[in-house]
Amino acid sequence: MAAVTRGSFTFMRRLLLAHRYKRCCSRVQTGRPDYTRHPHTVFIPQLCSSRFFHTSYVTSGPIVPFKLSDIGEGIMEVTVKEWYVKEGDKVSQFDSICEVQSDKASVTITSRYDGVIKKLYYEVDATALVGTPLVDIETEPGLEVAHEEDVVETPAMSNDEHTHQEIKGHKTQATPAVRRLAMENNIKLSEVVGTGRDGRILKEDILNFLAKQTGAILPPTPFHEIQPPPPAVSAPSSASMPKMKPSPSVPLPVISRPVFTGKDSTEPLKGFHKAMVKTMTAALKIPHFGYKDEVDLTRLVQLRKELKGLSEGRGVKLSYMPFFIKAASLGLLHFPILNASVDEAVQNITYKASHNIGLAMDTSQGLLVPNVKNVQLLSVFEIAVELNRMQILGATGQLGTADLTGGTFTLSNIGSIGGTYAKPVILPPEVAIGALGKIQVLPRFNSRDEVVKAHVMNVSWSADHRIIDGATMARFSNLWRDYLENPASMVLDLK
To answer: Where do Low complexity bias regions lie (predicted)?
Structure first.
């Protein structure tokens, strides 16, 4: 009996030694000993060299095709903008694979598996179809791979990854950021009702769930932390400052120098330009009703002048747009049909509870229309914070799908470029849009028939004439104008 015990102990010790030096031998190109076939072989560390091996082989895991999953919004193809990996690179879960550009936004594809990249299926600027492989990944040997949707990460503040979790027999969809937020607040995802596509749980759902539990009113979207103003530095006296000649101001070039090639060039429409073709083709099927008016912003100009320094002291640039957007939201409370949508057959109308007001932006990538979510719950300052965030992301091409989708009403600030009037085109499925002209200093008569200097802005509205009549559009415009001409009146209706 003792001999049997000693034999078993010796056998187990050999197996443990083999496991201990497994990594040392795995670096040798010719392979490593097979201890399952030769369990009684004694392993000696000093003999860890390829020339002493009698049996060698290389094990490899299964090669999994990493497919492009459904990004949503009916997108069927994307353009590969940049690869973050190459063949032979090791990747882990949630590592960035590549950046693709859809009709809606630029998104970053992240890995679902740990492994080695074996093949890239597309070149840069190539078109990838939803459901086709992007890369092949060699996973670890013996690892069971679940063929699920690939992970899609949207830049900036919205991570739209397609991740899943089995909870109480049904599949709950949420992003890693949402799961982390739920975990930090001890919230079970199974108790939260998702309002996203296919029941996906969004950050807003977690925040609304928290608000119901605590009775607090939380902002629907996260904001950048407000940076305190830098400490004031006492200016040196004029006597101590050396006298220097003022340097001549050098004007910066506004546009790049044009290059004339003398040859015609043809290139396919893709990305945001292709999206514009699709959107505008659908938009021009809508019978547009146009309405124009002018707004005296003299009082608002003075109010902004008083608040500008306070806002910048909090680290946020305050423009006129937050006032325009908030006034529009207050007007939509009285005219909810302008914050609605209709189906393609124009048989049903849906009144939107959230005022997701979009702002048309001219970026290097083309025309983008991100929207500020739930304006009806935000203050003017909170709207300014969101606009600052979106303008930074728009300038760097990092606006995500969540920022660019879900809009219910749109304003286009064409005046920032230099126009006074415009004919804005409705962005379906929305039913109304406004275009804001530049603010001009013009002579006007006051209540005493005196000619005074006034800050005047023209506004142009377009509405879906199938469901919105001219009188409704005019009354909304008058209310919006009254809020801006008398900004103190907005205080009475702010919540």
So the answer is: 234-247
Residues 130, 182: one domain? no
pLDDT of residue 476: 97
Domain of 119 in residue numbering reads as 63-138
Question: Token pair of 62, please?
Answer: 């299964």
- Tell me, yes or no, if 465 is annotated catalytic: yes
Q: Is residue 240 part of a domain?
A: no
**DSSP E strands, 84-208:** 90-91, 96-101, 106-110, 115-120, 127-129, 133-139, 151-153, 164-167, 170-173
| Tally of structural domains, the chain | 3
Both structure tokens of 290 = 């146009």
Per the CB < 8 A criterion, the answer to whether 351 and 336 are in contact is yes
Check residue 373 and give its pLDDT: 95
Range list of β-strands (E), 5-72: 63-67
Catalytic residue among 125, 198, 343, 469: 469
Final residue in a domain of this structure, among 113, 138, 163: 138
Catalytic hit among 164, 273, 288, 465:
465
The low-confidence residues of the chain, meaning pLDDT below 70, are: 1-60, 70-74, 103-105, 142-172, 175-177, 180, 184, 197-198, 211-256, 271-272
Per-residue pLDDT of 172-184, as tens digits, reads 677 666 776 777 6
Give yes or no: 469 in active site: yes
- Work out whether the CA dihedral 351, 352, 357, 363 comes out positive or negative: negative
